Amino acid sequence: MIVAGILSPIENVLSHVLIWLHTTGGLSWAWSIVALTVAVRVLLVPVAMRQIHSMQSLQLHAPEMKRIQQQYKGDKQKQSEALMAFYKENRINPYAPCLPIVFQIPIFFSLYFVLKDFEKHILPHYAGSSLDWLGLVKITEPVRDGWGPVLVVVYAASQLLSTYLMSTQMQSAAQKLLMVLPVVFVPFIIRFPAGLVLYWVTTNLWTTGQGIVTRRLMPRPLVAPKRSSRTPPKEAPAAAVVSASAEDAKPASATASGTPRRVKRKRGGSGRSRR
Fold first, then answer.
1. How many structural domains compose the chain?
2. What phi, psi does 146 have (nearest 5°)?
3. Contact assessment for residue 82 and residue 68, using Cβ atoms and an 8 Å cutoff
4. 100 domain residue, yes or no
């Protein structure tokens, strides 16, 4: 296959890592896949941090982007140009939220090809080693066999949870789409080797833990309000308050400190009239 040929270097790396974890680390083949997944996610931590920051920025600037979309809703080209200019001005990478999954896709398919020929190319050199995981599934068999459906349920639950934690900063339409995709993928997942589903369950659990930690430890970045020609200077409100207070106090102080007004009384109210 063409895809398998392109991914051959990644397959070789994954095979050597699995063999090293099994022989030197003393792990079973199934737990070697779990350890491999953790190692991959550790290497992708900087990418995940960029993803989180970009999603936060997109959420904070969502009202402004919506205003741009409404302003140019009749001209898609101008709308796209205005949005790209807005992204550049605010240093937003709209594609950053997709980076972790983009990096993991080649690893996912490479591991699929490794497990597909595992019993033919790797296992014969390590006779007596077990392919079972917790006595439930065999990593090279389709996940639909035996207790595999239990692993599929764990996959669906972990995928939904990790997607929910990572999509709370997205728009509602995108969030709903991401919540539906794990269920849509189930008919395809049941055809994969159990070891591949074990890899995906592990990465989902990692994403879930990462989402919980980052939500607690990473504050959302504050965006300063945009200034325009109508925006008063920073000291204007204080000056206005002082000026207003002086104006309000001026009549009162003038009245209090000024000379009281005398009222002239008309004479002759009770006097005699002249003839």
1. 1
2. 60, -130
3. yes
4. yes
